[in-house]
Amino acid sequence: MVAEAEYDVLILGAGSGGYACALRAAQLGLSVGLVEKGNLGGTCLHVGCIPTKALLHAAEVADSARESEKFGVQASLEGIDMAGVNAYKDGVVGRLFKGLTGLIKGRGITVIEGDGRLTGPHEVTVGDATHTGRHVVLATGSYSRSLPGLDIDGERVLSSEHALRLERVPASVIVLGGGVIGCEFASVWRSFGAEVTIIEALPRLVPTEDESSSKALERAFRKRGVVFRTGTPFQSVKTTDTGVAVTVEGGDVIEAELLLVAVGRGPVTDGLGYAEQGVAMERGFVTTDERCRTNVDGVYAVGDIVPGLQLAHRGFQQGIFVAEDIAGLSPTPIDELGIPRVTYSHPEVASVGLTETQAAEQFGAEQVESLTYDLGGNGKSQILATQGFVKLVRRSDGPVVGVHLVGDRVGELIGEAQLIYNWEAHVEDVAPLVHAHPTQNEALGEAHLALAGKPLHAHS
Ligand code: FAD
After folding, report:
1. Mean pLDDT calculated for residue range 258-270
2. pLDDT computed for residue 243 by the predictor
3. Which of 44, 135, 192, 432 is the right S-S partner for 169, CB 3.0 to 4.6 Å?
């Protein structure tokens, strides 16, 4: 502990984890210094969650226009004006950025602009100035990873950041990586009219999700004309005057105008003084305990630099947790499995808790039961013309340990699913709850009714 620190909490990085920590710490009466070399809000606000979801919404509007006849509406899709789409996207980001900047200022947080480096357990140096904090929070986030021999040039071979700045709809794209980010961009570009091929080394799209969710997304993508090659490792890429030629294992060559590299995100920790100050690291990530504490007294870490789910809401919650911990409120550690996960493609995939396979591994297959309720029986899903399901995984005679959802807009249902999981609700607790009709939420209620042995809009 330093006797005369400039701040109670000194935070390096103002992304989801860092700024949430700053806002909560200031609310608790602590003095806060927030070091940021880019824009307040970090990846999520500027080049992640928000702009991608704006693109996905524009894609949904395009799909609605294209499919309007299905609903008896005479409209047609004349084309995509990327300048207009980007103006809409940037407008959303701009408004949220302005709001966040105002909030940070309003709470009396000192923003220190510049590239920071940890130069002591209670010290961050920015340029010539050294700032001190009683507690230091590392929150420097993540960057788009590549593969050996794969050069992201920003012209033909793009990262997600480049993809967000594209000023045209490409005629064809290869998406390397069938995880969340890859599937979201594939979905957008397909809705905008591009030919899309996803290459994924693992056997299925969104490979960390329940197998049934992957299969449902694959079926829907196939129907939409998204081509995907799963179980197909990338080998090499050549750029040509007109595009890229990707060779995959086995020798097949796939050509397209652009290649998006979406093979995961690495931690931004290199050269920032963490290792030099004795902070324990593993493969570039910062190691913490369940209270987000590193091995160095007074130094915490939150967000994407900590191994685990790289999600904004995890960063927010860790940031809040650390602020409360520093303020002596003894908050409850975060259950990583209770963090909801959503892929906002068309259709969406959402989940919380264990997949059926994980539950079987953990409790034994005979101790695990699952039930799948098809959205075909859900009025609102029929109105929206979406297909998918709600799948519940529970321990026999125990609580629900996993909820898996597929369908347009099902990401909005994950809030209730998360409560069910985090409160260790039993099927009998949820089945009697009244869900408004007609909503997609009803499908969650129906699934619980069915698992309790009294299905309403499903066959017994
Ligand atoms: P970041 O948000 O990356 O913030 C780190 C900050 O630290 C940055 O502002 C950076 O400039 C700053 N920094 C780094 N080094 C220094 C330094 N030396 N000195 C000063 N400042 C520094 N998550 C979701 O939950 N939902 C989504 O829909 C979603 N969509 C995504 C889509 C894309 C395309 C991407 C790339 C990510 C998406 N994510 C999504 C993930 C989400 O953006 C991250 O999990 C989240 O931003 C992590 O927050 P963080 O605070 O750890 O890091």
Report:
1. 98
2. 97
3. 192
Ligand 1 atom nearest 18 alpha carbon: 51
Closest CA to 216 of 404, 385, 67: 404
Give me the CATH topology for the region 2-143+266-336: FAD/NAD(P)-binding domain (3.50.50)
Across residues 328-348, what is the average pLDDT?
97
CATH architecture for residues 347-451? 2-Layer Sandwich (3.30)
265-318 pLDDT, tens per residue?
999 999 999 999 999 999 999 999 999 999 999 999 999 999 999 999 999 999
Each residue of 128-163: pLDDT tens digit?
A: 999 999 999 999 999 999 999 899 999 999 999 999
Total-model pTM: 0.97
Q: Does pLDDT of 445 surpass 90?
A: yes
141 Cα: distance to centroid of ligand 1 (angstroms): 5
Of 40, 140, 285, best ligand 1 pocket probe by most atoms within 8 Å of the beta carbon: 140
Asked whether this chain's domains 157-263 and 347-451 adopt the same fold, the reply is no
What architecture (CATH level 2) is domain 157-263?
Answer: 3-Layer(bba) Sandwich (3.50)
Task: Give the mean pLDDT of 365-379.
Answer: 96
Domain boundaries, the chain: 2-143+266-336, 157-263, 347-451
Q: What was the pLDDT predicted at 458?
A: 81
What is the overall mean pLDDT for the chain? 97
pLDDT of residue 245: 97
pLDDT of residue 9: 98
| 267 close to ligand 1 (CB < 6 Angstrom) | no
Instruction: Reply yes or no on whether 57 is catalytic.
Output: no
From the list 437, 448, 457, 459, the catalytic residue is: 437
